[in-house]
Specification:
Blueprint: H1 4-12, H2 35-42, H3 46-53, H4 62-71, H5 76-86, H6 102-109, E1 115-120, E2 125-128, H7 130-135, H8 137-140, H9 149-155, H10 159-162, H11 166-183, H12 188-200, H13 202-209, E3 218-225, E4 229-239, E5 246-253, H14 257-267, H15 280-286
Antiparallel strand pairs: 1-2, 1-5, 3-4, 4-5
Helix pairs in contact: 2-3, 2-4, 4-5, 6-15, 11-13, 12-13
């Protein structure tokens, strides 16, 4: 797992002296900035910064964190992560919702022409419409996936075939898990997932040790579906404020001939309703 000191160390290692107006000097034994250089840029004492990296100083002020974030050229998502590590929640909630409201099932069912999943911050797939289930059938039907996108991505032997941009997806997934772990330090299932991935996948170890954090709202993916072929897709992550920790991920095809043909093959034999878990359809009808 990660602490404040490890994150600070990983961020200063990537900042070159030249990029912040410092002379590199001779006999530099570490990549990036030295501790004293970060302290100088942030306007704090070297001793205090050293205590932060060594975990010997708790609760730095927001002014200090802002100064360090500027010194290390942190992006907004990294700054948010820094604050979460420095000031973990006093009453952490270890529970992530896994129940999907009947109204959401109805919404998924009505999203014609869009492949949609509901996932939580652990990348558990909680629900899908018919097209989403068809698109991610290689993931959701594979033994051992446990309907978790991150587990399939790093553990399954078929993942690199399914995701044409596997390396990019892997880096982004590890970075998002790191961000979520700082927000939910008491989530034992998330901690177990991270431990399992680290034990099973050297690639996950590499991406995790990079220390990166990321939050993706939208983007592009290329998938190779065994029945439809290669699909170039656009996706949107739609957070659900009424269901914290859950989001809809909606996929639509890019406008190119090959993808449109593959999309038509994908949609050719869809069932009328999504394959809801036991009881979900009944709840929707009774709502």
């Amino acid at each position: 797992m990660e602490n404040l000191g490890a994150f600070l160390n990983s961020r200063r290692a990537r900042v070159t002296p030249e990029s912040v107006g410092l002379r590199p000097g001779a006999r530099r034994r570490v990549p990036g900035l030295r501790r004293e250089e970060v302290a100088q840029l942030a306007g704090i004492s070297v001793e205090y910064y050293q205590r932060l990296e060594q975990g010997r100083s708790a609760g730095p002020s927001s002014e200090v964190l802002d100064a360090i974030a500027r010194a290390l050229r942190l992006e907004e998502v990294e700054r948010t992560h820094l604050i979460a590590l420095a000031h973990p929640p006093r009453h952490p909630n270890g529970h992530q919702p896994v129940e999907v409201r009947p109204q959401l099932w109805r919404m998924l069912d009505g999203m014609a022409g869009i492949a949609a999943l509901v996932i939580n911050d652990r990348f558990d797939v909680l629900a899908s419409n018919a097209l989403g289930a068809r698109l991610f059938e290689p993931v959701l039907s594979e033994p051992g996936s446990q309907r978790n996108l991150a587990r399939h991505l790093f553990v399954s032997a078929t993942a690199t075939h399914f995701y044409l941009d596997w390396e990019e997806v892997a880096a982004a997934t590890a970075a998002q898990l790191r961000l979520v772990h700082a927000r939910h330090p008491a989530d034992s299932e998330l901690a177990q997932l991270i431990d399992d991935l680290a034990a099973a996948s050297r690639s996950f170890q590499t991406h995790w040790s990079a220390g990166d954090v990321e939050l993706r709202a939208a983007g592009a993916k290329k998938l190779r579906h065994p029945a439809a072929g290669v699909l170039a897709l656009h996706y949107e992550n739609l957070d659900l404020p009424g269901d914290p920790g859950q989001r809809i991920v909606a996929f639509s095809p890019e406008q190119d001939t090959a993808t449109e043909t593959a999309w038509q093959l994908l949609t050719a034999s869809l069932p009328h309703r999504p394959a809801a878990p036991t009881g979900a359809a009944d709840k929707a009808d009774d709502a």
